[in-house]
Specification:
By secondary structure, this protein is of the alpha/beta class. It has one domain (6-11, 61-109, 137-329): Ribokinase (UDP-N-acetylmuramoyl-L-alanine:D-glutamate ligase, 3-Layer(aba) Sandwich). It has helices at residues 24-29, 42-51, 62-72, 87-98, 146-150, 165-180, 192-197, 199-208, 217-224, 229-236, 277-290, 295-309, 321-329, and strands spanning 6-11, 15-21, 37-39, 56-60, 77-80, 102-103, 115-121, 127-132, 152-158, 184-188, 212-216, 242-246, 252-256, 259-263. A 9-stranded mixed beta sheet has the order 6-5-1-9-10-11-12-13-14. The chain has a 5-stranded mixed beta sheet with strand order 3-8-7-2-4. The two termini are 34 Å apart.
Length: 330
């Protein structure tokens, strides 16, 4: 049996986030759907960037943020994602390696530039994301190192990766390799609009290939086209080993067979920016699983991580999550 070198390996879009405050009026003027993630081309991305105010730029992407959270929790991590050999690609590579994440994916030497995501944070803390996928669409099955997947206890995949066809092939290959080596596969549904685009494929994936599912209330209801959260919960029961379903200020519900845990949200003095909440939650929950914690404790740990991230601007923690959790849970 291959020795485990990584507790979690993430596969997803390698993106440089550009985070900026934006009024609702700006979203309306630009015809943007508040709270959604939309794909844009390079021209639209540049146009919107020119219109916004001062921004905070950092490496990002849904799976990247989860992996960064896991690294902050002291978990052994790796990441697979495609950048271009340009300035932003070098920024991304340096940033992710600097926090202790193994990143070996070869940069593209031609084609689209490194991906960017303009994150517009409204006064009520909800975020609207405009993503230029750029080099992300170049990720393919050839970028999946079977030895790295085999050496990882959990392979974590983001739903956004299902958009580019080549990346979808990479996704499927990674899941197949993981299960061939008796490892687990975790999936984040990422966004209700993403679910709408790929519902049938996601349903088949969850029922046949996913061990650990992460979804918020809107995403799980969209997946099963359910009229209520409770009905969606009943649908997902038994389709995967564990489903971790988040409900914003109402906390989360964890389902595993006949086992159900309802866990309150961690108190937050002031919600500043919800970007990264789901990724931080997944990081905390996976940390709990890696450590052998029961599901309720894993969810509590996840809530602590999510609460820290939404208390400030940006999708990454500003403190050591490992120390934060130790202080709160002992």
């Amino acid at each position: 049996m291959t020795e485990i070198r990584h507790d979690v390996i993430g596969i997803g879009n390698a993106i440089v986030d550009v985070v900026v405050h934006a009024e609702d009026a700006f979203l309306e003027t630009e015809g943007l759907v508040k709270g959604a993630m939309s794909l844009v081309d390079a021209e639209r991305a540049d146009d919107l960037y020119d219109k916004v105010g001062p921004a905070v730029e950092c490496s990002g992407g849904s799976a990247v943020n989860t992996i960064a959270g896991l690294a902050s929790l002291g978990v052994r991590t790796a990441f697979v994602g495609k950048v271009r050999d340009d300035m932003l690609g070098k920024v991304f590579t340096h940033d992710i390696r600097s926090i202790g994440v193994e990143f070996k994916t070869a940069a593209a030497t031609d084609g689209p530039a490194t991906a960017t995501c303009l994150v517009l944070v409204a006064p009520d803390a909800h975020r609207t994301m405009l993503t230029y996928l750029g080099a992300c669409v170049e990720l393919g099955p050839e970028d999946i190192d079977e030895d790295e997947i085999a050496a990882s206890a959990i392979t974590y995949l983001e739903g956004y990766l299902w958009d580019p066809p080549a990346a979808k092939e990479a996704f499927v290959k990674a899941a197949a390799v993981a299960h061939a080596y008796e490892r687990e596969v975790a999936l984040s549904l990422s966004d209700p609009f993403c679910v709408d685009r790929h519902r049938d494929e996601f349903l088949a994936l969850v029922e046949s290939h996913v061990d650990i599912l992460f979804a918020n209330e809107d995403e799980i209801m969209s997946l099963y086209q359910a009229e209520s959260f409770d009905k969606a919960l009943q649908h997902v029961r038994g389709h995967c080993r564990v489903a971790a379903l988040t409900r914003s200020e109402r906390g989360s519900v964890i389902v595993s067979g006949d086992e159900v845990h309802v866990v309150d949200a961690e108190p937050v003095d002031h919600v500043v920016d919800t970007a990264g909440a789901g990724g931080a939650y997944a990081a905390g929950f996976l940390k709990g699983l890696v450590d052998g914690a029961d599901l309720a404790r894993a969810a509590r740990l996840a809530g602590i991580c999510a609460a820290e991230v939404i208390s400030h601007l940006g999708a990454r923690s500003e403190v050591s999550l490992g120390q934060l959790v130790a202080n709160k849970l002992g």
